[in-house]
Amino acid sequence: MTSAASPAYRRLGVEERRRQLLDAAQTLFAHRPPEEVSLDDVAEAAGVSRPLVYRYFPGGKQQLYEAALRSSADALERCFTEPPEGPPTERLSRVLDRYLAFVDEHDAGFAALLRGGSVAGTSRTSAIVDEVRRAAAAEILFHLGAERPGPRLGMMVRTWIAAVEAASLIWVDEGKRPDPAELRDWLVDHLVALLAATAAGDAETADVVTRLLGRERPGGPVGRLTRNVIPVIGEAAHLL
């Protein structure tokens, strides 16, 4: 009796094979800290031998991790790209939806990366992460109409980005609660509140807030936040 023929082996081109290995590594690094992923794991996930992984990534797991991180960073930076149309806070909501979807998909790898606790962390991986932060800040400032901010406004935006990272880590730790839409709305409110607080003592930020308010809809995030906050402030004012 003749046995069934095994599937024919398909020889891949150099770039196609490298992409295959990188995709397998990204999937593993997305859901497990880098120190828990071995080259054998990558080889098995890609359906190849360990020596073949070394042929394409002679630097071993570190080189593969950095390449996967670079690819993920590029994807994350694309999350921040948003056309300059419509109210700024609604644009920000769409960016945060994409960002939180990315965090959800890459949970364990994302957490290990931002915590900096991975044994695979190096100055090169830190530089890649910092590049993503700079890209996020530049995109926020672009939509605020302040691409060359003064020190107060620039610090405020960087502070908000750090808060978004911290909230994302807590969100992953807490089983991704609350719902992503609720977390998104809270992060938008956080930025608006920081802008308002900074505007109280910084003329540049005050101008940014004035322009932002002129482009918002009454039923949008700023209007909702204002309606929710005014009663709280009014009540607190009686205690001052």
Structure, explained:
- This protein is mainly alpha-helical.
- It folds into 2 domains: 12-71, Tetracycline Repressor, domain 2; 80-237, Tetracycline Repressor, domain 2 (Orthogonal Bundle), CATH 1.10.357.
- The protein contains 11 helices and no strands.
- Helix 1 crosses helix 4.
- It is elongated, with a radius of gyration of 23 Å.
Quick rundown:
The chain is an all-alpha fold. It contains eleven helices and no strands.
Number of strands: 0
Name of the CATH first level of the largest domain? Mainly Alpha
CATH fold category name of the largest domain: Tetracycline Repressor, domain 2
State the end-to-end distance: 92 Å
Report the sheet-strand fraction: under 5%
Helix/strand structural class: mainly alpha
Portion in helices: over 70%
Q: pLDDT under 50 segments (min length 5)?
A: 1-9
SSE pattern: HHHHHHHHHHH
* Radius of gyration, taken over Cα atoms and rounded to an integer in Å: 23 Å
